[in-house]
Amino acid sequence: MFRQALPDLPQVEIASYSGLTVRYAARIGAHVLVRGLRIGADYEYEREMALMNRAMQPNVETVCLMSSLEQQFISSSRVKEIAALGAEIDAFVPPHVSAAVAARIGNPR
């Protein structure tokens, strides 16, 4: 689904891994983790995570970007809850994601 959402960004690599993100970053030679912030609680969580990551891998930095106002209220858990209760999620996710979620919860289109 990530690849489908980003077809115009060939420089973006999509990869799956297990374990700590900061260890994966170090393993592939990445020096920056980019994280998104929506609300104040995200800041506290990401700050704590960035400090822990720095303690484990000092050469990997964390950069946080603020989401747009229009999308600050959207969260994956809320979108899944809305879908599970039978409402449309098309306004919150790309069409291919909406279709995949609907199929997964047994509400195919």
Describe the model.
- This protein is α+β, with helices and mostly antiparallel strands and 109 residues long.
- It folds into two domains: 8-69, Rossmann fold; 74-109, no CATH class.
- It is built from five helices and two strands.
- The model has no long low-confidence stretch (mean pLDDT 92).
Structural class estimated from helices and strands: alpha+beta
Mean pLDDT: 92
Bin the strand percentage: 5-15%
Percent helix among the residues? 40-55%
Fourth-level CATH superfamily of the largest domain: HUPs
Rg over CA atoms, rounded to whole Å, is: 17 Å
CATH architecture of the largest domain: 3-Layer(aba) Sandwich
Shape summary: globular
Tell me the count of domains: 2
| Uncertain residue segments | none
N-to-C SSE string, H for helix and E for strand? HHEHEHH
Question: Which CATH class of the largest domain?
Answer: Alpha Beta
CATH topology (fold) name of the largest domain: Rossmann fold
Count of helical stretches: 5
Widest β-sheet, arrangement of strands: 1-2
The overall strand count is 2
What gap, in angstroms, lies between the N and C termini? 17 Å
Q: Biggest β-sheet: count, sense, barrel?
A: 2 strands, parallel
List keywords for this structure.
alpha+beta, globular, 2 domains, 109 residues, single chain
What is the topological layout?
Elements (H helix, E strand, L loop, with lengths): L1 H4 L15 H8 L3 E6 L2 H17 L4 E6 L9 H9 L10 H10 L5
Parallel strand pairs: 1-2
Report a brief summary of the structure.
The chain has 109 residues and is an alpha+beta fold.
